[in-house]
Design goal:
The complex is a heterodimer of chains A (304) and B (314).
Chain A: H1 26-64, H2 70-74, H3 88-118, H4 123-136, H5 140-155, H6 160-185, H7 188-196, H8 201-212, H9 214-229, H10 256-264, H11 269-297
Helix pairs in contact in A: 1-11, 3-6, 3-9, 3-10, 4-6, 5-6, 6-9, 7-8, 9-11, 10-11
Chain B: H1 14-52, E1 62-63, E2 68-69, H2 72-103, H3 106-121, H4 124-149, H5 167-191, H6 195-203, H7 208-237, H8 240-245, H9 263-270, H10 277-311
Antiparallel strand pairs in B: 1-2
Classes of the chains: A mainly alpha (304), B mainly alpha (314).
Chain lengths: 304, 314
C-alpha cells in the first residue's frame, strides 16, 4: 500500500515520478506506520465479520449433511426413541405459509410501493413511508402476539391462516420500500412518453412503469420471501407447529424453522442431527434465492 | 380521497381517479395496520398496566404461579445483551465498512460484501442452533473458564461459574447478527462523503488513515450513529437466537458469565403456556414495552440516517 507524500514542505518536489522522494522525519515515519497498522486492522475487522459465515457453513455441512436423505424430505417427524423421521410436513407447511403470506401481502405491498413512488413529496406519503420504515423494525415476536390476540383468539385455535397473516405483516413493509425504490429508478421519460401517447395515468403506471421496474421488484420480493421463510418467532403462537401432514388452512401447520427450534432445544441427540440437517436445508433455500435475486438484479432495463 | 401523483391539476377521468384512490388505499393501509397493532396489543396488556402500574417495570421478581410479575429482569437482559452486542459489533462493522470503501480492491470487496449479505440472510433459528452447539461450549471452555480464573478474581463482570449460556453468549450471537446491518448502512454513509473532501485531505499531506479518521469519519458520524441505533433496534427485538443461548433465567446478573433473560425470550417461552389472565396480560405488556422501545429507537435512527442523506444532497 503506497502512501501519498506526507510532508507539505516536501511535497513540492513530489508529483513527477523521476523526482527523488523527500527524506522522512521520524514523525512522518510514525504517521505512515500508524496509517498502515490501522488500515490493516480494518482488514482484520473484515476477516472477523466473515469468519462466522465460514464457521456456520462448516458446522452445518459437518453436522447436517449426513442426515440429508430421501426420507428426510418425505417423512414426518418420528416420535422420541424411534429412528428416522423427516421434515416433509414442515417443508409443506413452510411453502403453504409463504404462499399465503405472499398472496395476502404482496398486492398490498406493491400497491403501497407504487403509491409512495407516485405521491412523492405529499405529506401523507411521507407519513406512510415513515410508518413503513418503523414497521420494518417491529420485533417479529410482537407481530406474533398481535396476530395471536386478533386472529387466533377469534378463530379459537392456531392455524396456517394466522401464520400467513403474521408473515404477511412482516412482508409488507419490506416489499413496499423496495417497490418504491425500484419504481423511482424508472426514468421519468418512460412515464412521460406513455402520457404523451395519450395513455391514461393508470395504464401508464401498470403498463409501462411497473414492467420497467419488474426485475428490481422481483428481486426485492424474492429476498423478502426468503426472509419470512426463515422466521420462527411470529409462528410460535400462530401456525404453532404440527408433527403431522396438514394442508388445511384452518389447522395448525408445521414450519421448517419452528421444527428446527423444537429439535434444537430438545434433549435428544437424534433430534439435534435433524435440526442441523433442517438448518442446512433452510440455508440452502435462502442461498439459492439470494443467488437468484443477484442474477435478476444484474439486468435491469434489459427487457426480456 | 388523498391527493396522489404530485397533486394533478386536472382531476383526470374516472379510471384514473379510481386508480389513484386504490393506490392511496393500499398506502394508507400500512399506517392503519400499524395503529391497529398498537391498539390491539395495548388493549390486551391493559389489565396488567392497570393492576401493576409503574411497579411493573421496577419490580424484579417474576413468579407467574404466585401472580407476581416484575419485568425488570427482562428489560435488563434485553438492554445488557444488546449493548454488549453493540460494543462488539460497532468497531467490527465500521472497520469492515472502512475496509470496503477505502481499502479493498474490487475483487476482494465483492465477495466480502456478498458474504455479509449472506450473514444477514441466515435465519435467526440457525444462529441459535449454531450458538447452542458451537458458540456456547467454546465460550465456556476457551473464554469463560480461563477468564474467570484470572481476570475474574478481580473484575466482577468476568467472574462466577462458567455456564456457557449467558449474557455474554447472547451478546456475541447478537453482535454477529447485527454487524451486517450496521456495516451496510455505514458503508452507504461513508460512500456519500464527497470525493473532494478526501482529495483535499490527501493533498494537504494526510496519510490515508488520517484522511479516514479525521475527515471521512467525522463527516459520516451522524449516519454511523444512525446505523448503530438501527442495529440496536434489531438486537433489542431479536428473539430466537438469543432465547437459545442466553440461559433464560430471570434475575439481574452482575457477571457477563451468568444467564439472563430478555423481553423477547420470555414471550417466546411463556406465551403459549400462559393460562391465567394476568400472566397473559403481563406478557402482553412486555410485548407492548418492547414494541414501544423499538419504535422509539427506530424512529430516532431513521431520523439520523435521513438527515445525513439530506446533507449529502441525495
Amino acid at each position: 500500500m503506497s502512501e501519498p507524500a506526507t510532508r507539505p514542505s516536501g511535497a513540492a518536489g513530489a508529483g513527477a515520478g523521476a523526482m527523488p522522494r523527500p527524506a522522512l522525519t521520524l514523525r512522518d515515519r510514525r504517521r505512515r506506520a500508524t496509517s498502515r497498522v490501522m488500515l490493516a486492522l480494518t482488514g482484520v475487522a473484515a476477516a472477523l465479520t466473515v469468519l462466522p459465515l465460514l464457521l456456520i457453513s462448516f458446522h452445518l455441512l459437518k453436522a447436517g449433511l449426513s442426515s440429508i436423505s430421501v426420507p428426510f424430505f418425505t417423512r414426518v417427524p418420528a416420535p422420541v426413541g424411534e429412528t428416522g423421521g423427516g421434515v416433509g410436513n414442515s417443508l409443506l407447511g413452510t411453502v403453504i405459509l409463504v404462499v399465503l403470506a405472499g398472496a395476502m401481502g404482496l398486492p398490498v405491498a406493491i400497491g403501497a410501493g407504487m403509491y409512495l413512488a407516485e405521491a412523492q413529496g405529499s405529506r401523507t406519503a411521507n407519513l406512510v413511508r415513515f410508518v413503513t420504515d418503523v414497521m420494518n423494525g417491529i420485533p417479529s415476536i410482537v407481530i406474533g402476539i398481535f396476530v395471536w390476540a386478533s386472529v387466533v383468539v377469534s378463530m379459537g385455535h392456531f392455524s396456517a391462516f394466522a401464520g400467513g397473516v403474521a408473515l404477511a405483516i412482516m412482508l409488507i413493509p419490506m416489499v413496499t420500500r423496495t417497490t418504491e425504490e425500484m419504481v423511482r429508478l424508472v426514468p421519468r421519460e418512460l412515464k412521460e412518453g406513455g402520457l404523451a401517447l395519450g395513455f391514461t395515468r393508470w395504464r401508464t403506471a401498470l403498463g409501462i412503469v411497473l414492467p420497467a421496474a419488474r426485475s428490481g421488484i422481483l428481486t426485492g420480493v424474492l429476498i423478502a420471501l426468503a426472509r419470512i421463510a426463515g422466521e420462527t418467532a411470529p409462528l410460535l403462537f400462530t401456525a404453532f407447529g404440527n408433527p403431522f401432514w396438514e394442508w388445511r388452512l384452518g389447522q395448525p401447520v408445521d414450519a421448517l424453522p419452528v421444527r428446527i427450534f423444537q429439535y434444537a432445544i430438545s434433549p435428544y441427540e437424534a433430534w439435534h442431527r435433524l435440526a442441523w440437517a433442517g438448518s442446512l436445508l433452510l440455508i440452502a433455500l435462502v442461498l439459492a434465492v439470494s443467488l437468484a435475486a443477484r442474477f435478476l438484479i444484474r439486468s435491469p432495463y434489459k427487457g426480456r | 380521497m388523498q391527493p396522489v401523483a404530485q397533486k394533478p391539476r386536472t382531476r383526470g377521468n374516472l379510471s384514473d381517479r379510481t386508480y389513484a384512490g386504490a393506490l392511496a388505499a393500499f398506502g394508507l393501509f400500512i399506517p392503519v395496520l400499524f395503529a391497529f397493532i398498537l391498539v390491539r396489543v395495548g388493549a390486551a396488556a391493559w389489565p396488567a398496566v392497570r393492576h401493576f402500574g409503574a411497579g411493573f417495570i421496577t419490580a424484579t421478581d417474576w413468579d407467574p404461579v404466585n401472580g407476581r410479575f416484575g419485568a425488570l429482569p427482562f428489560i435488563f437482559g434485553t438492554l445488557a445483551s444488546s449493548l454488549l452486542a453493540l460494543v462488539i459489533a460497532v468497531p467490527l462493522a465500521v472497520g469492515l465498512a472502512i475496509f470496503l470503501t477505502e481499502m479493498a480492491p474490487r475483487w476482494l470487496a465483492a465477495p466480502i460484501s456478498f458474504g455479509t449479505e449472506l450473514l444477514a440472510a441466515i435465519p435467526s433459528v440457525v444462529y441459535g442452533l449454531w450458538g447452542i452447539f458451537v458458540l456456547v461450549p467454546w465460550l465456556r471452555e476457551q473464554v469463560q473458564q480461563p477468564l474467570a480464573g484470572s481476570v475474574g478474581t478481580r473484575v466482577g463482570l468476568f467472574s462466577g461459574p462458567a455456564y456457557g449460556v449467558s449474557i455474554m453468549a447472547g451478546g456475541v450471537i447478537l453482535a454477529i447478527m447485527v454487524v451486517p446491518f450496521i456495516s451496510a448502512v455505514s458503508r452507504e454513509v461513508l460512500a456519500a462523503v464527497p470525493v473532494a473532501q478526501r482529495e483535499a485531505a490527501l493533498a494537504l499531506g494526510a496519510t490515508r488513515w488520517e484522511m479516514t479518521w479525521q475527515i471521512v469519519l467525522p463527516y459520516a458520524l451522524p449516519g454511523i450513529i444512525g446505523a448503530t441505533i438501527l442495529g440496536l433496534g434489531r438486537a433489542l427485538g431479536e428473539t430466537m437466537a438469543i432465547t437459545m443461548v442466553i440461559g433464560n433465567r430471570p434475575g439481574i446478573p452482575t457477571s457477563l458469565f451468568a444467564p439472563g433473560y430478555t423481553m423477547a425470550s420470555v414471550l417466546a417461552n411463556e406465551f403459549s403456556e400462559a393460562s391465567d389472565e394476568m400472566h397473559l396480560a403481563a406478557l402482553m405488556e412486555i410485548g407492548l414495552l418492547l414494541f414501544a422501545i423499538t419504535i422509539l429507537v427506530n424512529s430516532f435512527a431513521r431520523f439520523l440516517v435521513w438527515r445525513v442523506g439530506r446533507r449529502a444532497g441525495r
